[in-house]
Amino acid sequence: QVLILKGLKQEVSCLCPSPDGLHLAVGYEDGSIRVFSLLSGEVNITFNGHKAAVTTLQYDHLGGRLVSGSKDTDVIVWDVINESGLYRLRGHKDAVTQVLFLKEKNLLVTSGKDTLVKWWDLDTQHCFKTLVGHRTEVWGMALISEEKRLITGSADSELRVWDITYIQEGKDPDEPESKKSKGSSSGAEENTEEDETLELDEHPEEVSSVFHAVYQSSSSLRLVKCSRVGSIMREGRDRVVTLATDQTGKILACHGTDAVLEVFSVLSEEEVQKKLEKKMKKAKKKAKQNSEEEPERSVELSLQEEIQRVTNIRASSKIKSFDLILSPKGELKIVLLLQNNIIESYNLNLSAQVPQAVRASRITIGGHRSDVRTLAFSSDNIAILSAAAESVKIWNRSTLQCIRTMDCEYALCSLFVPGDRQVIIGTKTGKLQLYDLASGSLMETLNAHDGAVWSIALSPDQRGFVTGGADKCVKFWEFELVKDESSVQKRLSMKHVRILQLDEDVLCVRYSPKQTLLAVSLLDCTVKIFYVDTLKFFLSLYGHKLPVLCMDISYDGTLIATGSADRSVKIWGLDFGDCHRSLFAHDDSVMYLQFVAKSHLFFTAGKDSKIKQWDADKFEHIQTLEGHHQEVWCLALSPNGDYVVSASHDKSLRLWERTREPLVLEEEREMQREAEYEESVAKEDQPVVAGETQGETGLAGKKTIETIKAAERIMEAIELYREEMAKLQEHKAICKAAGKEV
């Protein structure tokens, strides 16, 4: 790792390096774009114009302009040098998926989920051509053969190929052009009629659209023609996710939602000519052998011969994104970002007889391959345990480095054994796994439950623990030392001592601090409280509409807080089981809840990607920790209450630290109101139907609180200027009447 570019809280949605390689444009989920310097790592420019996530970015060949497409259906062209927006292009009816600048010509091509490919003249800022030959969303585009061909990828297994031709001034637009070496896999022939701009392919199911579009540029009147040549068939049956070429345009690659990257080679004009000559010689030779006359008609290359399949690269998991570089020696370097948090690098020797991709390296050790479902802090606040479907990792809190990785089954719950030398994992298959941290080895596996072990809780006396599972049982366990067969020393083990049978699946279990009561959350939406010594029933807490997924008991044993899939948190008294208050906590299920040590404050984590802090005495929302981009599955508080660690579906673990800065609730409320107001301001300008706008072009800016305040300040300044000018005129009039010089 050589550099980290730090943005704000929003998720990065797309990247685009500048042509000089010194800057990186980064698009975010909130619609903002930041341009980072790769030398200093600092943000040089921030552009704000989109109302939704930026989906695609592209620099022009000089790096002076940047174009962005978004989920809000708009395309915006930015001036990187002046750090300002030039104009907004409207026309797509759904999210923009790809934008491409044409070198030398001031043209832009955009594709969208509305099945359209649009051509824009940037001199006059209008759309002069729309390709409508796609039945489904256009997910990707690429320009090849020195920008004389356009390739589009959609939701089927076809890559459609289009020829681009520019007809200069003075040439009859309907005059048939000299056919260049192009072959259609469908054998399509042009049937251009006068005053007609549509041509039919021999494909019965598709209409290929040929557009003669006249547009005025500063240099001359030009005519652009775009006609469908044919299709290249992909092996993947699903939609195209990424379609791209290398910088030279010689290599084309694409992938779908699976683990296969398909690589194609595009022949240059010289190579096409050589192939044609070779083919012509063969045809003449064949004609001589059959003692026929020389073939009169010109030999044509098929599309598959011009764009040849090189190989398929199968990655270890589903591909999310890729990039490729063709070295001057002819070696192709490909880097893949995979869905399971791995980066893989492949080398491909194109000069070989049968090119085979060789995996050069991979970055894996950083994190988990799947979602982390359980977290735990050690008693000294230093080590953090995280466990997922394939491994358990121990992290050092201060250095943020992973210090142990151990293979496990699908983990659902975990705890550090007192002493912090061993950890216990509860799995989806009903097993308890005991690991030794010093050696990183699995010491013991017990079949604890017949179903998933949903919850585990350490007893306050630290002599044992309790587990709750999908087999409707709560089981009590004690730690014991047993003789190890392989060594003289005794080792730690777990002994099952008691069982509590219930009528429903157990989702969560918690001890009261004095170990007198045990709270058990059941699938029937209730929480049952039992005496620990006799296992007699004490209280039933009912009121949630959906099952209680998490709960915790305060340090003094007076309160129990329960978080449910019905999005609410209820605070109950443990003396009589009365509900003190019900709080609407999250916009989705509450996944985890834990009290801060020695206080009545507690944290909740929700599927709405937020972590919130609450006061159980005043029933107030204190603050929201925003940073995760997807569902938060679990969190853990350090025993001293200074740290919170959280795990999310966005594949990240986030560590939060308590600062000494006092938190003023009124300020928090004010900031929340401002954020809500800004959101409502942004929505004011949005049309009811996406893409339905007044006109094709517009200003690149976006209305925010800052722009409203700036406009108000300008209006105040103008008003002040008018007042001062009026005073000056009045003063002049008085002086003139008095016969004095002003």
From TrEMBL:
PROSITE patterns attached to this UniProt entry: WD_REPEATS_1 (PS00678), WD_REPEATS_2 (PS50082), WD_REPEATS_REGION (PS50294)
Single GO MF annotation: snoRNA binding
Main location: nucleus
GO annotation terms (biological process): maturation of SSU-rRNA
Sequence segments annotated as region (Disordered): 170-203, 677-697
Entry's Gene Ontology cellular component terms: Pwp2p-containing subcomplex of 90S preribosome; small-subunit processome
Subcellular location(s) per record: Nucleus, Nucleolus
Entries under SUPFAM superfamilies matching the protein: Quinoprotein alcohol dehydrogenase-like (SSF50998), WD40 repeat-like (SSF50978)
Ranges for the WD repeats: 5-46, 47-88, 89-130, 131-164, 365-405, 446-480, 541-582, 583-624, 625-657
Entry-linked InterPro entries: Quinoprotein_ADH-like_sf, TBC1_cilium_biogenesis, WD40/YVTN_repeat-like_dom_sf, WD40_PAC1, WD40_repeat_CS, WD40_repeat_dom_sf, WD40_rpt
Composition-biased stretches (Basic and acidic residues): 170-180, 677-686
Coiled-coil parts of chain: 266-293, 711-738
Pfam family, one: Beta-prop_WDR3_1st
Taxonomic superkingdom: Eukaryota
Keywords, sorted A to Z: Coiled coil, Isopeptide bond, Nucleus, Phosphoprotein, Repeat, Ubl conjugation, WD repeat
Biased composition (Acidic residues): 190-203
CDD domains assigned: WD40
Function description: Part of the small subunit (SSU) processome, first precursor of the small eukaryotic ribosomal subunit. During the assembly of the SSU processome in the nucleolus, many ribosome biogenesis factors, an RNA chaperone and ribosomal proteins associate with the nascent pre-rRNA and work in concert to generate RNA folding, modifications, rearrangements and cleavage as well as targeted degradation of pre-ribosomal RNA by the RNA exosome.
Subunit structure comment from the entry: Part of the small subunit (SSU) processome, composed of more than 70 proteins and the RNA chaperone small nucleolar RNA (snoRNA) U3.
Family statement: Belongs to the WD repeat WDR3/UTP12 family.
Stated name of the protein: WD repeat-containing protein 3
Organism: Pterocles gutturalis
